[in-house]
Design brief:
By secondary structure, the protein is mainly alpha-helical. The protein folds into two domains: 102 residues; 56 residues, no CATH class. The chain is 69% helix and 0% strand. It has nine helices and no strands. Helix 2 crosses helix 3, helix 3 runs parallel beside helix 6 and helix 5 crosses helix 6.
């Protein structure tokens, strides 16, 4: 059977990259497993950058399965910290280059927390709009001035 690139990427993402059985299987291999996981994500990024064949929801699934899962994230940090850092920076690059628009704006904050030296922003009891506004304020401060009126549109412009 001949598949289009989009169809094959969708199949590989579902059957392998975000499949809990595959993830648990490669985690048994320690350093090499962490390398394999990160390399697979790198290949996905390469396809996104060169072909526009990777959909946003596929990056959402990959993020949730790898960096969004505390157990997998801890494994990557322990087994191969350099690749975990590379995966994190790869997510940031995809966002910065416009190759990924996550369904949850909290991803921006979560990546900030994963960055070295970042202090987690307290979000208990906050709505997504409140989290977005707070993140937009943080981004505005980085750009040279606080804007307390920052909202969803500002977040979409800056991130």
């Amino acid at each position: 059977m001949i598949r289009t690139l989009r169809e094959e990427i969708a199949r590989v993402v579902r059957a392998r990259v975000v499949n809990p059985k595959w993830i648990r299987g490669v985690m048994r291999h320690g350093y090499k497993g962490a390398f394999e996981m990160a390399a697979t994500v790198d290949y996905l990024f390469a396809f996104a950058a060169t072909t526009d064949a990777v959909a946003d929801h596929q990056f959402d699934l990959v993020y949730d399965a790898m960096l969004g899962d505390p157990e997998v994230r801890a494994f990557l940090e322990q087994a191969n910290p350099a690749r975990r850092a590379r995966s994190r920076s790869g997510c940031r690059r995809r966002l910065d280059r416009g190759l990924w628009q996550p369904r949850a704006n909290a991803v921006y904050h979560e990546l900030d927390v994963l960055d070295e030296g970042a202090r987690p922003m307290k979000t208990d009891g906050m709505t997504e709009d409140e989290i977005n506004a707070r993140h937009a304020e943080k981004m505005a401060k980085k750009e040279g001035g606080a804007r307390p009126d920052a909202g969803r549109q500002d977040l979409e412009k800056c991130c």
